[in-house]
Amino acid sequence: MRIDIITIFPDYFAPLDLSLLGKARESGILDIRLHDLRTWTHDRHNTVDDTPCGGGPGMVMKPEPWGEALDAVTGDAPAGAEEATPRLILPTPSGAGFTQKHAERLSGEPWLVFACGRYEGIDARVAEEAARHMPVEELSIGDYVLAGGESATLVMVETVSRLLPGVLGNTASAQEDSFASGGMDSLLEGPVYTRPTSWRGHDVPPVLLSGDHGAVERWRRDESLRKTARNRPELLRAAPEGEFGRRDQE
Ligand code: SAM
């Protein structure tokens, strides 16, 4: 998968060289390209912002550098996939709530472009113009306001990338995660343990050491339901009718 990130702070993305994503980049599974928006400014101060039309506090990102940046970055199709159209992701607190379902869908795309806003956001005409050339999605990582789109982009890139074949050592681990489609669906993952089996007076639940796979699976399901009911009861209420068996509801 190719991912382009346009930002005024390319250094913010140093963590993308680490761990699973770093390895995926080295092995060629992930082709992440960082672009400094100021490359597409033409004044002495490399200005990317201006005062908001209509007045009010703060500054707004100017459309011209963004237009030129998107033209340059998206005009550069990946080798062997000339017809591939990128999908533009605009992180914004006013976007649709980003979930594991978005990550699963986006992990099937060949090419994503992230545009990191700063200040009061990007002039709205940039999204309008981009939508004439490619699919555009506004996504929020939560109901709070960050200083910029960089950390939101890191969250989304990491969530999407770990679903790509070959990124996780064991693909089953993503299928058993909280929220995973076809696995946990609307349930959170329950508690997990490793050795030693007894630590500071806390014991691993004996069923996990029993070797009885059916009993382990039933215990995990029960713990998932318990944790979901405790931490996110709205997930259980929103689950489609019949999703949980009679045994689950007892
Ligand atoms: N004035 C904007 C509003 O109230 O919707 C907030 C702008 S915020 C200070 C600057 C940038 O941070 C946004 O353009 C966006 O790129 C990013 N951002 C902030 N919160 C975010 C969130 N919850 N999800 C995704 N991106 C976010």
UniProtKB/TrEMBL annotation:
Gene Ontology MF terms in the entry: tRNA (guanine(37)-N1)-methyltransferase activity
Residue ranges annotated for the tRNA methyltransferase TRMD/TRM10-type domain, each copy included: 1-237
Record's protein name: tRNA (guanine-N(1)-)-methyltransferase
Function of the molecule: Specifically methylates guanosine-37 in various tRNAs.
SUPFAM superfamilies with a match to the protein in the record: alpha/beta knot
GO cellular component: cytosol
Cellular compartments annotated: Cytoplasm
Keywords, in A-Z order: Cytoplasm, Methyltransferase, S-adenosyl-L-methionine, Transferase, tRNA processing
Cited InterPro entries: Alpha/beta_knot_MTases, tRNA_m1G_MeTrfase_C_sf, tRNA_m1G_MeTrfase_TrmD, tRNA_m1G_MTases_N, tRNA_MeTrfase_TRMD/TRM10
Catalysed conversion reaction: guanosine(37) in tRNA + S-adenosyl-L-methionine = N(1)-methylguanosine(37) in tRNA + S-adenosyl-L-homocysteine + H(+)
Summary of subunit composition and partner proteins: Homodimer.
UniProt keyword Ion transport, yes or no: no
Binding residues for S-adenosyl-L-methionine: G117, I141, G142, D143, Y144, V145, L146
GO terms for biological process, alphabetical: tRNA N1-guanine methylation
EC number: 2.1.1.228
Pfam family name, one: tRNA_m1G_MT
Ranges where the record places region Disordered: 227-249
Signal peptide annotation: none
UniProt family annotation: Belongs to the RNA methyltransferase TrmD family.
